[in-house]
Design brief:
Layout lengths: L3 E6 L9 E3 L4 E3 L9 E9 L2 E9 L3 E7 L4 E4 L4 E4 L1 E5 L3 E6 L2 E2 L6 E4 L2 E4 L8 E9 L2 E12 L1 E4 L24 E3 L7 E2 L2 E2 L6
Parallel strand pairs: 7-15
Antiparallel strand pairs: 1-4, 2-3, 4-5, 6-9, 8-13, 10-11, 10-14, 12-13, 14-15, 16-17, 18-19
Amino acid sequence: PVPTISWRKVNGHNPSKARLRKSQAVLEIPNVQLEDAGMYECKAENSRGRNVFRGQLQVYTYPHWVEKLNDTQLDSGDQLRWECKATGKPRPTYRWLKNGVPLWPQSRIEMVNGVLMIRSVNLSDAGMYQCLAENKYGTIYASAELKILASAPTFPLNQMRKTIIITKGQEVVIECKPQASPKPTITWKKGDKALRESKR
């Protein structure tokens, strides 16, 4: 006799959107998602007995960004840490480009699982960077610019006053605020002699 047919997802529930057609002989899952993956079982039985068939549904996805890069400005000597994250199945692998040319690990440059680290950046590190996330179904790109700030100390906005008049016994504050990148070291002299800290 014509068998009755039933479907089930082994170790789980049938997707709620699943449809059965042709006297339940056909299982349809519209708009398949990662969570629909798994082992499915079709059981056919009549008065003479029953038979079971199992099939594995594997779902693959194009890479998709979870975290992208942002344009960054750093002082010369700082450390850069950029991370790009993507989902996908199979899990995406990452590659880095600088100005369109593949970037490779070097003494100051590390690349691990989508993280790029450059220690003690200098002007030669400035440029456009791209992170590529790829699996066998496709490749996606994220781009960002790295700018390196490097300038000798100047006093364009914070000129020290040439003369400060103060009453004996009062406190005086003299500010030294240069613009510089990286942060400069500051020393003070009185005349030709270096000033040392004291109680006052």
